[in-house]
Amino acid sequence: MLASSDIGLALGRVVENTPQSTADVDGLLVSAARRLDPDGQTDLEWTFEPEEGTVTERLAALASRRDRESDLQELDLTLRNTHFLRAAAVLREWARAERTPTPTASA
Q: Using CA atoms in the order 24, 28, 34, 37, what is the torsion angle rounded to 10 degrees?
């Protein structure tokens, strides 16, 4: 229940679209992810190497997950969407930074 409220608050902050609200979104979504999966990682190093073998092996692993209980499938989907929203918030923050001119020191 608390994870749902964190996600709802984060979505509200996305709609506000202010510099402070943009900064708050990631914190709220990280909080939601930790509530959903306390032992899960919220930050991973970026790598260009696939973590799990070939594409065929990865697809087979994903297909085997379909047979799990629906509660686990729903949790996986919610976590995936939460992290997707985090990525979108970061992109939005980058776009805002590129549009905002940096103040220059007057000589």
A: -130
Query: With contact defined as beta carbons under 8 Å apart, do 93 and 22 qualify?
Result: yes
Taking residue 73's Cβ as centre, other Cβ atoms within 10 Å add up to 13
End-to-end CA distance of the chain: 55
Comparing C-alpha atoms, which of 7, 13, 17 is closest to residue 92? 17
For every one of its 107 residues, what pLDDT tens digit does the chain have, with 9 covering 90 and above?
A: 888 999 999 999 988 888 888 779 989 999 999 999 898 888 866 665 655 567 677 667 767 766 667 777 788 888 888 988 988 888 888 888 777 666 665 54
- For 88, the token pair is 């979108």
